[in-house]
Design brief:
Layout: H1 2-38, H2 56-70, E1 74-76, E2 82-87, H3 96-105, E3 111-115, H4 123-135, E4 139-143, H5 154-160, E5 166-171, E6 176-181, H6 190-204, E7 211-215, H7 234-246, E8 251-254, E9 261-265, E10 268-272, E11 284-290, E12 294-300
Parallel strand pairs: 1-5, 2-3, 3-4, 6-7, 7-8, 8-10
Antiparallel strand pairs: 2-11, 5-6, 9-10, 11-12
Helix pairs in contact: 2-6
C-alpha cells in the first residue's frame, strides 16, 4: 500500500510538471509569435487577443442608429441580368491591383464589393482608401474586416464609410435581390447583430428573388497558409449555416485567409476569396453574374 501511494504521488508530480512544461512552451510560442508579428509595421498585437477598438456590440448599436438615419441603398440595373465585382483583403496602402480591377469593373459591373481588410487600420491608409473610393468610377461597397479595426481603426471606418452592418438591394426590371453585409471583424457577429440578421431574414427575405451574404471572417478553412488567422466559433458557425440554409441564401462570400475556397453545404455556396493586396500570390477578383440564377468566376490579376 505504501509503495502504491508513493508511486501515485510520483505520477501526480510528473503530470503537474508536464502541464507546466506545456504551458511554458505555449506561452513561449505566443510571445515569440507576438514579437515577430509586431515586427511588421501593419500589425497590431492586441488584435491577436481581442478587437483593438469598440467591440462588436457597440459597433452594432452604432450601425443600427446609422442605418435608421441614412436608410439602405438601392442599385438599379437596366437589364434583367447584372454583374458585381467582388474582392477581399486589399490592405491599402498601395493599390496597384485595385486599380487593375477598377479598369475591368468600370464598364461591366454595377459595383465593387470589398469584403474586408480594406486597410491596415491606420488613419493614413484609411484616408487613401476613402480617397480611392470617392474618386472611383465604380460604386464601392465596403465590408469591415479584422485589420480595419487595428490601431483604433473603427473610428476611421465609421467616419468614412458609416455602418458596418447593413444590406443593399439590386433592382432589375424582372426582380429584386438582397445583399447583406456583415461585421465579423472580431470573429463573431455578437447578439445584437445576430438578432438584426434574423429580423432582416424574417421581414425582408420573402420580398427578394436571390440573397447574398458578405462576411470578412470565413466559416470554412482547409488552407492553413495564413495561420494563425481564425474562424468564427464552431457553435456560432453551425447556427449561422442553419440560418442561411433556412432562408435560402444563394451564396456567402468571405475573405480573410488570402486563399480561395469553394464549398457547397445545405444548398448554400460558400466562397472564400484570394487576397487582392499588392504582391499577393495568386491575387484575384471574382465576377459574379446574377439573373434567374447566379454564377461566378475567379480572375487572376494580369501582370
Amino acid at each position: 500500500m505504501g509503495n502504491f501511494l508513493v508511486k501515485s504521488q510520483i505520477l501526480k508530480v510528473k503530470s503537474q510538471k508536464l502541464k507546466v512544461e506545456r504551458a511554458a512552451a505555449h506561452y513561449a510560442f505566443v510571445f515569440a509569435f507576438a514579437f515577430a508579428f509586431t515586427a511588421c509595421g501593419d500589425a497590431d498585437v492586441t488584435g491577436l487577443i481581442a478587437g483593438t477598438s469598440e467591440g462588436v456590440e457597440k459597433r452594432a448599436e452604432y450601425s443600427l442608429s446609422w442605418n435608421e438615419a441614412n436608410g439602405f441603398q438601392t442599385i438599379i440595373s437596366s437589364q434583367d441580368d447584372y454583374q458585381l465585382c467582388i474582392v477581399g483583403d486589399t490592405h491599402f496602402g498601395t493599390s496597384e491591383n485595385f486599380a487593375k480591377v477598377e479598369a475591368v469593373a468600370e464598364n461591366s459591373t454595377l459595383a465593387i464589393v470589398v469584403v474586408g481588410d480594406i486597410s491596415t487600420g491606420k488613419k493614413d491608409d484609411y484616408q487613401k482608401a476613402a480617397e480611392l473610393f470617392a474618386n472611383s468610377t465604380s460604386k464601392i461597397i465596403p465590408v469591415i474586416g479584422n485589420h480595419d479595426l487595428y490601431f483604433g481603426g473603427w473610428q476611421y471606418f465609421k467616419e468614412y464609410f458609416g455602418s458596418s452592418m447593413y444590406y443593399f438591394e439590386v433592382q432589375t426590371p424582372a426582380a429584386k435581390d438582397l445583399h447583406i453585409c456583415l461585421d465579423s471583424g472580431n470573429g463573431t457577429l455578437g447578439k445584437t447583430q445576430t438578432n438584426w440578421l434574423k429580423d432582416v431574414f424574417s421581414t425582408k427575405r420573402a420580398n427578394y428573388r436571390h440573397c447574398f451574404v458578405y462576411s470578412h471572417t470565413n466559416m470554412y478553412r482547409s488552407n492553413w497558409s495564413q495561420s494563425p488567422s481564425s474562424n468564427m466559433p464552431l457553435e456560432e458557425t453551425y447556427r449561422l449555416m442553419d440560418l442561411f440554409s433556412k432562408n435560402r441564401v444563394n451564396a456567402v462570400i468571405m475573405a480573410h485567409d488570402h486563399s480561395r475556397e469553394e464549398i457547397v453545404f445545405n444548398k448554400v455556396q460558400y466562397i472564400t476569396l484570394d487576397a487582392l493586396l499588392d504582391g499577393a500570390k495568386n491575387a484575384s477578383y471574382v465576377i459574379m453574374t446574377v439573373d434567374k440564377g447566379f454564377a461566378y468566376q475567379f480572375n487572376l490579376i494580369a501582370e
